Structure formats: structure tokens, C-alpha cells
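It would be a great kindness if you could assist me with a short task in structural biology. A protein sequence and the C-alpha cells that stand for its backbone fold form the material at issue. I should value your view on which stretches of the chain appear to form regular backbone elements. The record follows directly beneath this note.
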Amino acid sequence: MASSQRLSPVHGMLNLNKPPGMASFAVVSLVRRLTRVRRVGHAGTLDPAARGVLPICLGQATRVVEHLVDSSKTYRAQVRLGAATDTYDATGTVIATADPSDVTEQQVQDVLRLYRGRIQQLAPMYSALKHKGIPLYQLARVGQTVERKPRSVTIHRLELLEYAPPLLALEVECGRGAYIRTIAHDLGQHLGCGAHLAGLIRIKAGPFLLEDALSLDDFRQAVREGVWEEFLHATDSVLTDWRAAILGEEHTRDVLEGRAFHLTPLRPERLMGLAPGARCRAYSADGRFLAILRYGGGRFWHPSKVFAPR
């Protein structure tokens, strides 16, 4: 078991494989309790019934959660035709049924085309979105339904992997805010037979893959053996697709003291077309991850978030 007091702070990310039947917040609580790290958070909720990749951020890595949440995610989904539920998944109550035996694979493919790209999606009532400060699922549990406005979400890829009616297997790559449950429900509505999400696995979240994810049992064992920190990923590992700058001593001091500064890249043409607000990773000459810089126009950069100790 980890000691009650840590001699040094811990910063980084764990790629954990959340089991079905466990809430994402419960995984956060487990990690906090076992490691004795106070600042712990997850990057993208998985429904309790779902399993798969759940990135857990510790220490200063909690400050990059927003960037990981914004990254694309990939899911394997099983959809059951012939029954719609109030939660849009198998945990809910069946509210409508119809015979799906006449549905063809081509019809499914034709409907799936409607859900690719930038689409408008209505969140389910059984979701964590809030109405006047109250989570929708709390209202749904007492029988209330409120009007929800469709939200714009991006479905980068949506493929039919297997057609074995009444079950379908889909693979979905999507951006932030997309509900796979809603895709399953809407698919059934378009086909006229109803449908719900029968199973869901997240196989990728940002740079983290399911095949590399650590099970909770293995994580507990690593804590008992005192080696769990060996599974931490660096805080900047989710930012590797950004441009990077290596700073000299003067600019390193500017960053650590929160001062804006002028930075001339080795290839000045790289600033052409760069919009104010663009971000950059900053490192010291000895390779320490220093900060996230925000571009202010011209050669002007401002330290947005500083990670290295002063």
C-alpha cells in the first residue's frame, strides 16, 4: 500500500481499462485512495456500463485534462435492433419494440451515412448535462422530460463492422460531446424498428490505446509492489501533435516568472498564417517541460500554463 505521505509530488497520466459496472468517478476515487495523490481527475467520462480506456490525470497533469477531453476518441459499439429504451442503452426500460427482420444491411449502411461528419445530435435525458443546474438524469429518474437543444458534434468515422441482426457491430471515431447511445437510438428510429446500445468499449482516447491500458487489478498489484509510478505517462504526452519550442536561459526565466516575451523561430516563415491564440509546448534546454505558450501575434508569446517548478 502507498504511504500516507509522499516525499515528492507525482505528476502524469495513467491509461486504465475501466471495467463495466463502475462509474468513472469511482475509478478516480480508487486511484486517489491507493496512491495518496490529492489531485486526481479523469479525461472523458465513460458510462458505468461501458468499459475501456479511461485516462487518469494526477498532479499537474490535471491541468491538461481539457486538451485530452477535446481529442478524438474511438469506440466499438454493439447495437441491438428491435427495441428502444428510455436510456438509449441496455440499462434502461424498453419503451417500444418492432420486428427488425426486414431490415437489410444496405439500409443500415444508408442510414449510417447520415451520422458522419458534423451533425446535430440530441443528448439523451439520461445524461450528465444540466438543466437549470440539475443533471438531466436526475430529472429523468423522477419522470421529467425537458426540452434539449440539438448540439453540433463531429463523427470522424462510422463503420459497420458486423451485420448479424438483430445485432450490429459499429466502430465510431468522434470528437468531444458525441453520444454513441444517441447514434444507436437514432439509427433505430430511422430504420423504424427501434434500437439501443447493447455494449460499448472505448478503444482509444487521444494517444492512449486499449491494448496498452492497465486493468484495475494490475494497478492494485502495482501499488502493492510500489511500482505503479512506472506506468505513468508524461504530462506533455497528450500534446505531442503541437508545435514545440526549446528555450534558452533568459526565456526560461520569463516563462517561470509568468512574463510574455518575443520568440523568433529558427524558420520565421512558420509564423505565417499562425492565428493569435495558437498554442505551443515549451521546453528548457535540458529537456524539462516548462509550459504551454499562447501566441499573441507578431513574435509575442505568453505563458498560458506553467508546469516546471520555479
User: Anything to note?
Assistant: The CA atoms of residues 20 and 49 lie 5 Å apart. The chain is about 20% helix and 35% strand. The chain has three domains: 12-71+207-237, 73-205, 242-306. The radius of gyration is 23 Å.
